[in-house]
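Dear Dr. H.,

I hope your travels went smoothly. While you were away I took the liberty of generating a structure for the chain from your last submission, since the lab meeting agenda had it listed for discussion. I wanted you to have the full record in hand beforehand rather than looking at slides cold. The sequence, exactly as received, is reproduced here:
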Amino acid sequence: MPDVSSLEQAAAALTTALDALDERLSDRLSDLALQGDSADAARRHAKVARQRAAEAADDLAGAIGDLKSLLAPPAVSHKE
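The corresponding predicted structure, in token form, is as follows:
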């Protein structure tokens, strides 16, 4: 039968191991939260970039249409 001293040492070692595991888990959760925040920020930036690109494409299409109108030969009207 193990003596009380051995059980106390085993309990102390287990407590130390659990504390270390808890600290590692806490650190890992913090790292994951930071990664999640970074991913969320990247998604927000990508969404804004997509919106701005769509707006720019619309503006460019309008400008191209205006240029085509300006460069098109004038319509000839035939008066009778």
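Two observations you may find useful: The mean pLDDT is 89. The first helix runs from residue 4 to 71.

With kind regards,
E. W.
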